[in-house]
Amino acid sequence: MKILSLAQKEYLNSIIREVADFPKPGILFKDITTLLGDAKAFEFLMEHLYDRYKDKNLDYIVGIESRGFIFGATLANKLGVGFVPARKPNKLPYTTISQKYSLEYGIDELQMHIDAFGNKPGANVLLIDDLIATGGTAKAACEMISKLGANLIELAFIIDIGIGGIQELESYGPIYVVLGD
Ligand code: AMP
């Protein structure tokens, strides 16, 4: 696999903007728009992910709304596999399955189309999002991928903020964090 050099990792870390107290006090928001706006950084990040997954026999990539769509759809297109969005409630027009999950205050929900994997049992799926925090959002997506009969090959994130999300998700499959250790 094409390994990211230390210099490339440092560059990616430096290009992701940190915004304090967004969207609420106490949150240090990792803003990946500054990475997306840097053509060189976005390109070598996607090349790295392409290289990691090109021989994994994937059928679909599931991206979590909304930043997971950007990385997921770009990677799916490079790999020549389908892209499936896991969306916030009442956005998908056809019949959906839903999974609720807990937030710090309250409950949220993700939905996927019932035929997202073409009714093909055992489709090989990669789940991707920009960042893992508590792991609750990705867990909801994993539950739906499982209910739809697909085979979760790996969970991929660009950033882990180190608050226990990885441990929450370990039972669903291997986890890869680009800017991990
Ligand atoms: P969680 O379900 O707690 O793992 O939260 C992950 C989701 O919330 C991802 O879709 C992230 O994009 C978003 N998120 C959570 N915390 C942050 C943060 N500090 N900076 C940017 N996005 C975040």
UniProtKB/TrEMBL annotation:
Q: What is its EC number?
A: 2.4.2.7
At the top level of its lineage, which domain of life is listed? Bacteria
What species was this sequence derived from? Answer: Campylobacter vicugnae
Main location, first listed in the record:
cytoplasm
Location of this chain's protein in the cell: Cytoplasm
Under which pathway is this protein filed?
Purine metabolism; AMP biosynthesis via salvage pathway; AMP from adenine: step 1/1
Name-wise, this protein is: Adenine phosphoribosyltransferase
Q: Which GO terms describe its molecular function?
A: adenine phosphoribosyltransferase activity
Record key words, sorted: Cytoplasm, Glycosyltransferase, Purine salvage, Transferase
Give the function comment from the record.
Catalyzes a salvage reaction resulting in the formation of AMP, that is energically less costly than de novo synthesis.
Q: Which InterPro entries match?
A: Ade_phspho_trans, PRTase-like, PRTase_dom, UPRTase/APRTase
Instruction: Name the enzyme's class.
Output: transferase
Reactions accelerated catalytically: AMP + diphosphate = 5-phospho-alpha-D-ribose 1-diphosphate + adenine
* Protein family membership: Belongs to the purine/pyrimidine phosphoribosyltransferase family.
| Subunit text | Homodimer.
* The keyword Glycosyltransferase appears for this protein: yes
The Phosphoribosyltransferase domain is annotated at 41-161
Indicate whether Transferase appears among the record's keywords: yes
